[in-house]
Each structure stands twice: as C-alpha cells, then as structure tokens.
Amino acid sequence: xFTTMGLGEHLGNKMHGEDYITDLPExxxxxxxxxxxxxxxxxxxxxxxKWRYKWATLxxxxxxxxxVSVSHIxxxxxxxxxxxxxxxxxxxxxxGPINRFTIASAxxxxxxxxxxxxxxxxxxxVQELNIGWRVGDWFRAPSCLFSCKKLxxxxxxxxxxxxxxxxxxxxxLKHLTLQQVHITRDAVENLISSCTLLESLTLLYFDSRxxxxxxxxLTCLVLEGEFKDICLENTPMLAVISVAMYINDDIAQHxxxxxxxxxxxxxxxxxxxxxxxxxxxxxxxxxxxxxxxEIQPTYRQLKVIDLYQVSxxxxxxxxxxxxxxxxAPNLQVLQIGGSADASLATDAVDLDFWDKECPRDAxxxxxxxxxxxxxLGLPHEMRFIEFLLGNSPVLELMDIxxxxxxxxxxxYDPSEMYMEILGFETASAEVVIEFTExxx
Length: 440
Description:
This protein has helices at residues 8-11, 26-35, 38-43, 76-93, 114-123, 185-194, 249-257, 262-267, 282-287, 315-327, 353-356, 379-390, 414-422, and strands at 60-63, 100-103, 128-132, 139-140, 153-160, 175-182, 200-214, 220-233, 240-245, 275-280, 304-310, 333-338, 369-375, 397-403, 432-438. It is α/β, with parallel strands linked by helices.
C-alpha cells in the first residue's frame, strides 16, 4: 500500500537536462501535498527520491473512506479493516508535528487501535481533533484525550465522555463541538467553564437537561436538543446565538410549573448579542414568565433576529417577539416563521391587546428587511404585520410567504389577505411588499 519504489525511478530522470519535479521549491511541494487527499499524497512517493517521504511530514491529516479503495468491497468490516491498516501505517511512518487530525468513515466502528491513535496524537501536540463514528457503538474517549493540552479545536461525535475529576480544562481550546455525546450535566458545565479561551460552542442532540454556560470569551453558541432550562452567565462577548429546542412530556410539565422569567435568564447575560436564531419551542420557552413591562436590558448590537415555529395563537409568544424588537433599537433584519397550524387559532382572542397594551408609539429606526413565512392570514398575524409596517420608517422590504392552502376554510381566498395588507398604512415610503407561497 505504501509503495516507494518503481515508477519514480523513471519519472525522476532528467528530461531535457532538467528535473522539474525534484527541483520544485519546498513551499510548492508543501502546497501540492496539502491540496491532495491523503491517499494521493502517499502516492507522490514514486515521483523521485526527494519526494519519497515528503508526505510523512504533513501536519494536517484527514482520514476517510477515500483513503482506501472500497468500491469492490462488499463487507463493511473489511473496508473498516483496510482503513485501520492505512491509518496505522501512515502514523507509523509520520515524522514531525500534527496540527490537525480528522477521521470520518461510513464503515469504521469502534477500533481497539483508536486509543493508540489518540495516545500518539497527544504526544504530537495535536491542535485540532475531529473524531466520530457514523455507525456502530459509541466510542468512549480514552483518558489520554485530556492530555492534549495544545488543543485549539475539538469535535466529537457519538462519544461517551468522562473527564477525570482532576481535569482542569484545555488551556488553549477555542472551538468545541459535541454531537450526540454522553456526558453528565456537571461534567459538560465544568468542561465549558474550565476552557477559559473558548470562543465557539456547539452542542447538538443534547437531551432533557438544564444547562448553565459560563464562558467569558464565548462569541458563538449553537444548541440543539431537549433542554429544560438554559442559563447564560458570564458571557459578555457572546454575539451569535442559535438554539433549536425540542419538547417531550417531561419538559412540557416543567414548562407548565416554571415560575422563572426565561427571557431574563437566557438573554440577561449577553449584552453583546448581534444575531439571535430560534427554532422549535424556543419562543415558547422564552415566553414563560415574560412580560412587556419595563424593557431591560437594551441590546444595541442586535442586528438580526430569526425565529421559527412561532405560534401566533399564543399571545405570550407574540410578546416575546415584541420585547425583542423593543430591546433592539438597531435591528435591521427580522425573519419570523409561523407554526403553520391554523387549527390552534380558529378563534381570534385577545385582539384588544394591540390597541390597549401594545406600544403603538414604538419606532424601529433601523429595520430594513422583514420576512414572514408560514403565514395563514390569522388575526394576530395581520395585526403584527400592520404594527411593523406602521412603525418602521426605513423599511425596504416586507416579504410575506403564505401557505398555499388553508384547511380550516375551503372558501378562503389568499388574495383577501394580500389586499388587506396592501391597505395598511406604512411609515416608509420606499417599502416594497412582496407575496410568495409556501407549499404545505
């Protein structure tokens, strides 16, 4: 597999008195090797004697199914064995530091060699590590992982993670991604807080837990899972937040019994937020304990808000959107996706809110673009659109995407919604109102 003789004896010969391949500058050969898949990089050893082991000094290694020929192999176990053998041979002959190590395969499962690879990498001062299995059992991260003190970026997929009790964190870690990782709440919270340089954090498919995040240098946060509570503390630099929250019966009961203000708990410690994205039950979660009283704090850097699966039949969720709008005086882009469930809002209730409690004198001085999707033309949706049009003096675009059918009323004519919106007063003389359709 690792042939180093043969063809190179011919290709390396002088052609017209010059050997262009052998005499390439070191910087050029390094660039060529870094652009090639590892399998092809190894094959350059046949080019000439000077190229024979240049691949062995690569500092960024990405192992995948392309490293071995598996097109003619019908056994996934055999394909995995070939990849393991390739990795073993590559690492055995490797010379020098390894900055980045990635392994991903559709065939590879838990291998007894994995612990040895990580031990080898820990001694190479690896800086970026990306490991995960797509099939088979989840792998248990060996203790030597926590000896990789030079790590700057760590991504683990389908992993069981148990940091040692005396673990003090990765002192240089800036980027952490955990997807489908089994780890206790205390362990993940301690891991996050102990990595004091952490700048980006992604937690995917985390289930039924309360989570407190303390990270003074964190700028980007991505969360997805069945969370009961999320508390952001000591996150003064956090600028980009994306949260997808799912719900089960246990979490639904927790929501019903909660008395805390989730809006304050979640956003109270993020004065530097610039972009907020919420999916699933995020808006419902934020609505618990929320009021439209005194608007504190003010998010002056918040420019973009994207919220999806918003239930316009629920006035509390509408109040979350309004509070965000009123708290973000420099907001420029707003995108709201409805829940697309008209059966939940057949009766228009609390419509007097818009006349009695909604701050009609509010002005959104910087708001330029609004996109509303999954709209059904329901009363609260219409009043919300009217509110935005009437209070956004520099608005340039109002894009409204309506579901193409409404099962609650066979005689419903979508053009009625369009005509009503076109009749609303607009604070901006330049606004363009566009109508599109969602196919559901």
